[in-house]
Structure formats: structure tokens, C-alpha cells
Amino acid sequence: MNAISTSMDAVRPSPVLEVSDLRVSYGSTLRSVHVVNDVSFVVGRGEALGIVGESGCGKSQTMLAVLGLLPASGRISAGKVKFEGQDLAALSARQFRSLRGKGMALISQDALSALNPSMTIGTQMAEPMIHYDGMSRKAARDRCIELLDLVGIPGAAARLGAYPHELSGGMRQRVLIATAISGNPKVLIADEPTTALDVTIQAQILRLIDQLRRELGMALVIITHDLGVVAGVADQVAVMYAGRVVESGSTDAIFSEPRHPYTRALLEAIPKLDEPADKRLTPIAGLPPDPRRPPSGCAFHPRCRLVQPACREQLPALEAKDAGNGHLIRCSVDPWARSNMAPVRGIATSGGVS
Amino acid sequence: MLSFIARRALQTIPVIFGVTLATFLLSQIIPGDPTDILLGPGASEEARAQLRQALGLDRSALGQYLLYLQNLVHGDFGQSLTFSKPVSEVLASRMMNTALLAFAAIVLASVLGVAAGTFAALKPGSLRDRALTVVVLFLNSMPSFWLGLLLILAFGLQLRLLPVSGMTSGDGGFVNLLAHMLLPTLTLAAWSLAAIARMTRSSLLDVIGSDYVRTARSRGIGEWRIVFFHALPNAMPAVITVIGMQMGFLLSGAVMTETVFSWPGIGLAMYQAISTRDIPLIQGGILLLAVAFVLINFTIDILYAYFNPKIKLA
């Protein structure tokens, strides 16, 4: 067991989404490629979890697996996903369908491609209300207007007849958020919700998501490559690398006491306000590994500055070490263990919410 | 939408002018004196001169073209040599027959093609998907005259189930017409059906893999609503383009099919006109088919805009 829940503090709310030892594979059973491995996390009611990692690290695949939306070639080959205590693998296709939208909803990255280009905003928004919830057209229309108001779209009634391409990027993302919350989901999954937007709009959208989460009491899973986004919104953070969680814990712990070399490297790659503007950022050399040819031992070892011979041989476990408070680290070297740790400098956030 | 239709309609005008110019040039580049054909070799020089004047052949090329246009506007396509009737009459009496056959074929090809493509796309890589690929390949590589002959052999001569020639026989009721239509329609539709099925399958697969279909799924929309209300409408523009192109091919395919089945349409008339060097009829037929082609494309453009609201802006 290596879930965040193992050493849960008393303050964490009851779980709504539990993922344990999840593995997602593609290809035939004989030559399968695992893009997600042993991923475990728990999201409590109303809590926000940030999943952070570079593109291709398996964070989106994890959430698609949770939603049951993996493409036909992918599958969950091990592990469990539980929603409100119910194992999702036991659900019929029909039950799973009605869970989507109402239990869990998705906001994806690029609102232009995530909205149907040939349907008006109103038609798309109202579709599940009319066809699955038995609302009248009038009631659905009123509800859509209410939702668009809620996400801060001015002149909501007039927007219902618009097509997605007729709105600005920020507006589209708001519409996408409105469609996602229309079923009052208990868990909102936001997959890079601000990546396609420019910086000022990013901050607005993040603030909106955060505010809606608090107002509607939703749990939030926010998937991002941007630690700044996580810093402002998430209570818990899981850092993923090459399909595995390499470090997880409370947002405070991850930012004040990052222990995995990868987390450290990610933090060093963020520009900081309190440093001279001409100071160069420290990029992480190399590329994430190809999941078809994963490196031996720790997947990060080819890029790690602190690599030891042992790292090439054995995959370290995700464990608490001496960090406490549910902070888990997957590193056999653990160079920043408390015994030999130096103080960490403050980290500036980009586009974060305070 | 209305201004879009108006703009597209205006754009067809130069195309139609181009077609008239091309058919006019056809009469200019054909060697030989038209009066030879019309009056026979033994005609007097006086009679020839008279006819030349009557036909406007004594004018300059530009003058002849303007006269040709003027005649076209008045519905005068010239005189058919083989049928000894005005070309417009020959074409008018046959246009409906060709239209009927082409319409039946495109409806059949579209309905079956879209259905088969959808059926295959829902389970890519499945047995039914692969079976469809084989059928499509077969229909695609089958020349229409050969398929027509095989159908005649099988259903007409061996099984003696269906008539193989003409439009009607005996007292000729509606059922009789349908029976006569069946084989030529199948022959004409086969190639288009395959092309439409293939495009539906690939276009639908694209759309089903798109973000917005995933979004719809993530909101709890059921699978059949996804296919019919989210995926198919967005896959349609590509399919409609192919259907439009197929309608053009059907018009030319009609020449072959109508000849094989002796279907009294424009295609058969064109075939006869070509074998007897009936230039005015060839000209009229080409003009008619070309204008039909332009009108089809015009209609396709409008349908395209209907399915893809972004196009209206362009």
C-alpha cells in the first residue's frame, strides 16, 4: 500500500475518489506497453488534488482511465478505481455512463476542440438535461443561462445560440466549465484547463474553477505540467514521472520540502520573482523515457543529477521515509532527507491563485 | 446563410460561361464543313451559302460564339443529325430518364454507403469492418460495364428474374419501371457506394477520436446519441463532398450503364451521337451534363455550409 491515505491526517475529509495501484496498458497482452503504473491516490470530498508532470508522464491517461474513457486500444490492466466506495469495474456500461457528468466531470485542455463545432453552445449544454434528466426545453434553457451566469459569461441568453468558434478562447473555456458542472458532479477533473489560454485569462479561469469548487463543494483533480497552477489551487499534490507517482503529499509539504530530485528539478525550472531577471533557469536535461522502452530501475535515473549505481538497478518504492504527514517519496537516494537537508528557497507561482 | 447562397450562385456564372466557350470551341476544332454533313456532298454551292448564312457560319468566330450564346438563351441547341430533331427536344425527352436513374443510384449509394461505413466504424478492426473492406475493394475495382454484364447474365439470362434492357415493357406500370431500374441502378451505384462507405468509415473514425466526442462521453451522453448527433454530423462534410463528386461520376457513368442496359437517357444518346459524329447533340449533351455538374456542386456547397457553420464566414 502506498496511497496517500496510508498516513492520512485526521483533517482529511472522507474519500470520494480512490485510485489504487492503477495500471493502464496499451497493445496486446503479450507486448503491452504500460503508460501508467502503480498509481494510487485518494481525493476527499471537496478536496483538490494536483497531478503534476511533463507531457507523456501518464497523468491524462490516469484520469481517462478513472472516467472509463480510455481509447479502444487502452485498458486498465491492474488496480482499482473506487467512486464513493463503489468499484467502477463492477459497473455496467449504462451505470458508468450515468456516473459520468453527475459523479465525475471532465474539463479538457483545448476548449475549441472539446466543444462540438457543429452544435450551438445551448444545444450542447442542454443535451444531457433534456435527453437524460427529462428536463423540459424551457427548464433546460433556464438552467443553461444560470450556469453561464455562474461562470461569468455576460449576456448568457444571447450566447446560447452561438457556435464555439464564435467565442473567444477564455469564453469557450468558461462554457466548457459550465457544461462540466451542469450535472453537479462530486469530482471535477480538469486536464490542463489553462494551457491553451494566455496568462491573464489563465489566472481568471483558475480562480473561477477554484471558486466554483468551493461554492459547489466539488472535489477537484487538476492535471497540469505547471507547478504554479497547483500551488494556488491544490490541497494535495502527486508528482508523476514516466507513469509512476514519484512524490506525493500536501501542497505545503511538496513546496516547502520537496524530496524527489525530479520535483526539485521541476521547481528549479520555474522562474522566481525574487531572483535577478537575467538569472538562467535550470532546465531538466533530456527527455522523458519512451514507455515502450522504460529504463531499468528508477525511470528518472538517466536525467537525474544525483544518480547512484543503485538507481539503475532497482525501482524504489513510494514510501514515507522520515517526512511524515502523508508525504511519500519514491527515491532510494533521498538526498534531501531531513537528516541532511538544506532550507529551500521560496517559490514564485505562475498564474496561481492566492 | 442567404447571402452565402447568393454569393455561391454568382460564382457559378463564370463557370457556366466557360463551359459554353468550351463546347463552342468543340464545334470550331472539328475538321470539315458542317454543310457537308447537313446537305450531303452533292449539294449546290448556292444551297451551301444559304445554309451558312442561316446558321451564321459566315460570321467571325466571336460573332458565331455570340450567336451560339443567343441561341442557347432561347433554348436553341441546334439540330440533331441522327434524330432529325432539335437537340433540345432529344435531350429534354431523355433528361428525366437519366435523372431518374442517377437519382436512384445516388440515393442508394448514399444510404447504403453511409450505413455500411458507420456500421464498420463503430467496431474498427472487427470482423464486420474487415468484411466491409473486402466488399468495398471488390466494388471499387469492378468496371461498371463489366458489373452490368455480369448482372445481366445472372439475373436476366440465368435466373430470368429481372428485365435487362429498356425502361418499361408491356403495359409498363410503376412496378414494371422499378424492375427495369433495379439492375442499372445497382450497376451505376456500385462504385459510388464503395467510395462513400470508405469515406464515411474513415471520417467517422476521425471524429469519434476527437476531443469533443470525448467531452460528450464525459458528460454521460449515450453511445447512439454520440454516433448520430455528435459524430455523424461532423463526419458529414467529408462524406457530402464525396457524394457530390460521385454525382459527377454518375453522370459520366450513365453513358456506360445506359448503353449496357439500353436505358433511353442522355448517356445512351451521347453514345449514339459520338458513334455518328452528331456534333450538335454531343455539344448539347456536354453542356447539359456540365451545367448539371455545376448545379450539383453548388448544392453540395450549400449542404456543406449547413453542416459546418464555420464555412458560412468564408
How does this model look, in words?
- The complex is a heterodimer of chains A (354) and B (314).
- Chain A has a single domain (4-103, 183-340), classed as Rossmann fold, CATH 3.40.50.300.
- Chain A is 30% helix and 20% strand.
- Chain A has helices spanning 59-67, 93-99, 111-114, 121-131, 137-150, 156-159, 169-181, 199-216, 227-233, 251-256, 261-268, 309-313, and strands at residues 15-26, 33-44, 48-52, 74-83, 86-87, 104-107, 187-191, 219-224, 236-241, 244-250, 328-329.
- In chain A, strands 6-7-8-3-9-10-11 form a seven-stranded mixed β-sheet, sandwiched between helices. A four-stranded antiparallel β-sheet of chain A has the order 2-1-4-5, with helices on one face.
- With 314 residues, chain B is mainly alpha-helical.
- Helices cover 77% and strands 0% of the residues of chain B.
- Chain B has twelve helices and no strands.
- Chain B has helices spanning 2-29, 34-39, 45-55, 61-73, 87-122, 127-140, 144-158, 174-208, 211-218, 223-260, 266-275, 279-307.
- Chain B starts with a helix and ends in a 7-residue tail after the last helix.
- The mean pLDDT of chain B is 85.
- The chains are: A alpha/beta (354), B mainly alpha (314).
- The A-B interface holds A 67, 69, 71-72, 97-102, 104-106, 108, 110, 113-119, 124, 127-128, 131-132, 163, 165, 176, 179-180, 182-183 and B 124, 209-212, 214-222, 225, 229-230, 233-234, 307-310.
